[in-house]
Design goal:
alpha/beta, about 35% helix, Rossmann fold, 8-stranded mixed sheet, 8 strands
Length: about 260
């Protein structure tokens, strides 16, 4: 399935749209298992190069698939570049607020909460890893084709200067700000990290995740890198792709 088809597919129906804050984009779509739910909740952060032309709908397919395997999954929206207050740090502040709302969410829907797994795709991978760095209670994080190196993303002009739009300019002008937002420079000493990347990804090169893995292993962080053969940027979030069973298996293993 092409990237255009995934982005334009009608999203599956969620069980509830739940606000976590006062702003229009402070909400998440909750997908509940039809059978017995595990004691793990997945918080999913969609991608789209942090821009408001992309919303959470395309990630609903992934969330529905995980719910079908017993994992309640909350697909969160947030302010993006182009929204009032979007960009760094507003975008990340929204993600932190959504994460801190999870206990209330599980109480409201009578869910057993033993652990939260944070999953992020593309730009959402950057936000997911930042969440693990700034929120010590995050126990596991999965980056799917993540933009995990902002300096390199800026150098390669990924997403037509998406990083500069997020940060308000180039690294030389906002050096301290970049250090605060770049997973490559952040310490994640507690969370188990999984980086999954398609070998045929033409949007975010797979060596982003490979280099991150190599450097973070040297620092003693608990991180693994999985490169998927014949998988592109969107295969890792497409439940109908040949890559999906391995993505799903890694998330289920973390839940266990």
């Amino acid at each position: 399935m092409s990237s255009e088809e995934i982005l334009e597919m009608r999203p599956p129906s969620c069980d509830a749209r739940v606000p976590y804050g006062p702003q229009p984009f402070h909400f998440g779509d909750l997908f509940l298992p039809r059978g017995v739910a595990q004691g793990t909740v997945v918080l999913n952060i969609h991608g789209g190069f942090w821009r408001n032309r992309y919303d959470l709908d395309h990630a609903g397919h992934l969330c529905s698939a995980l719910a079908n395997r017993g994992l309640p999954t909350w697909n969160v929206e947030y302010r993006r570049v182009g929204d009032e207050g979007g960009g760094w740090p507003g975008t990340f502040e929204d993600v932190r607020s959504a994460y801190r709302f999870v206990p209330e969410l599980t109480t409201r829907f009578n869910l057993d909460l033993e652990k939260v797994i944070v999953v992020g795709h593309s730009a959402g991978g950057q936000l997911a890893l930042c969440l693990a760095a700034y929120e010590p209670s995050v126990g596991a994080v999965v980056s799917l084709a993540g933009v995990v190196d902002l300096q390199r993303a800026w150098e390669l002009h990924l997403g037509s200067a998406a990083v500069a739009d997020l940060m308000g300019g180039p690294p030389d002008s906002f050096r301290e700000k970049y250090f605060q937002a770049d997973p490559m420079h952040l310490n994640i000493p507690r969370a188990t990290q999984r980086l999954i990347h398609g070998k045929e990804d033409g949007i975010v090169p797979p060596d982003f995740s490979r280099t991150y893995w190599e450097r973070k292993k040297e620092r003693g962080e608990e991180v693994e890198f999985i490169e998927l053969e014949k998988a592109d940027h969107f295969a890792v979030i497409d439940p109908h792709s040949p890559a999906w069973p391995q993505v799903e298996r890694e998330i289920l293993n973390l839940a266990d």
